[in-house]
Design a protein that fits this description.
The chain is built from 1 helix and 2 strands, in the order E-E-H. With 43 residues, the chain is of the alpha+beta class.
Amino acid sequence: MPHDKSILHDEFGTLPRGINHIGLTVPDLDQASEFLARGLGAK
């Protein structure tokens, strides 16, 4: 199988190409939602 040059590697292995989503645990969901909406433009 040929080596795909579009996939990046380092000494630890294959590097991710991007992030699809993340999960956060917060003590106050309303406060966190307001922060994300104001600070990051989230909906």
